[in-house]
Amino acid sequence: MSFNVNLDTLYRQVIMDHYKNPRNKGVLNDSIVVDMNNPTCGDRIRLTMKIEDEKVTDAKFEGEGCSISMASASMMTQAIKGKDIETALKMSQIFSDMMLGKEYDDSIDLGDIEALQGVAKFPARIKCATLSWKALEKGASAEDNGKS
Questions:
Q1: Which residues form the NIF system FeS cluster assembly NifU N-terminal domain (predicted)?
Q2: Distance of CA 50 to CAs 8, 72, 108, 133, 135, Å?
C-alpha cells in the first residue's frame, strides 16, 4: 500500500512540475494551428505544430486551464517532438485508452505522461487531460488534408 501512496505522490509531483514549469509553451510561426476548448470547465488550448516529411519537428502550446489540462499539454508536446506522425497518433490512442481505463498498448514508452493515469479515476477530469491530444489529432488530420 505504501508503494501506491508513494507512486501517487510522485505522479502528483510530476503533474505539478509540468503545470508550474510547462515545456514548449509558446507559439510557432508558419505552422499548423489548432484551437480547442473544453466548454464544461473552460480549459482552452492553442496547439501549434510543424510537420515535415511525416514527422513532428516541433510543437508548442498556449492556453489556460486546470493543472491537469496544462500539464498534459506540456507532456504531450514534449513526447511527440521528433516522432513520426503515425507514432504520435498511436501515442494519442494509447493515452485515450489509458484515460478510459481500458487495456492499452505499452509498446511505446510514454515517459512522464504515465503520471496522468490516475485521472481515469475522475471521469469529470478526463476531458481536461485529453484536450491537447484531441488537438494533436485534429492538427494531424488538417495536415493529411493539406490544410496546414
A1: 11-128
A2: 34, 19, 22, 15, 13
- Give the chain's length: 148
For residue 134, the domain's CATH number is 3.90.1010.10
In tens, the pLDDT along 74-123 reads 999 999 999 999 999 999 999 999 999 999 888 998 989 999 999 999 99
Euclidean distance between CA atoms 106 and 91, whole angstroms: 10
Among 64, 3, 58, 70, smallest CA distance to 28 is for 58
* Helical spans, DSSP H, in the chain: 2-20, 67-80, 85-99, 123-144
Q: Is 112 helix (H, G, I), strand (E, B) or coil?
A: helix
Q: What pLDDT was estimated at residue 1? A: 43
Per-residue pLDDT tens over the stretch 25-52: 999 999 999 999 999 889 999 999 999 9
Which residue's C-alpha cell is 501549434?
Answer: 48
- Domain of residue 43 covers 2-144
